[in-house]
Amino acid sequence: MIVLALVARGSYVLAETHDPEHDRFLPAAQTILSRIPPNSSKLSYAFEEWLFHYVSQDGMVYMAVADAETGRRIPFTFLAHVQKKFLASFEVPAEDDATDYSGLSKTLKEMVGRFNADPQAVDPIAQAKNELAGAKDIMTQNVEQILSRGERIELLMDRTDNAANQSMAFRRRAVGLRRQMWWKNTKVLALSGFSGVVLLFVLYSLVH
């Protein structure tokens, strides 16, 4: 988390915000400001379990103090946001500038609050990772749907094969049944014919 953030013109602090529990960092930050060379630079100072990060460019210094576990990438990304916000709202002040920067202090406090609530919100790499993770989840979900669809297709094919086999079996049974019925009809006709012949023979014998 960030416990202190400031914007300075050289070693003169224009606006700052800090956690009241870390007032002791103010003198250390002032000392570091007095030692920053005039040329553009980006550096981190270690102090106990904390890191003082700063970006110096065009006579302006943007500084943030964060715990060492946070690393360097995210605090410097935060400072890039601070620098962009400052340059969008103000011009680089001259040494005798008397502009009121109380609004900037409020903006710094809000930015620190948002950062501490969700550090990844200001980290483009973390955002890219989250987007990639989301895309991966979507792709995984799509693959699962395709696999599930494939299973349904295979099941449908199995059912179609079963229906075809059942249809062929039914056809065979129908053909067999038709043959059986033809033989039965033939037998009935033959028996009827034979009975008729016998009856005629008996009638003929009785008459003669």
TrEMBL record:
PROSITE patterns: LONGIN (PS50859), V_SNARE (PS50892). It is a single-pass type IV membrane protein. Pfam families: Longin (PF13774), Synaptobrevin (PF00957). The chain crosses the membrane at residues 188-207. One of its GO terms (cellular component) is membrane. GO terms for biological process: protein transport; vesicle-mediated transport. Residues 6-90 form the Longin domain. It is found in: Endomembrane system. SMART domains: Longin (SM01270). Keywords: Coiled coil, Membrane, Protein transport, Transmembrane, Transmembrane helix, Transport. Residues 124-184 form the V-SNARE coiled-coil homology domain. Belongs to the synaptobrevin family. This is Synaptobrevin homolog YKT6.
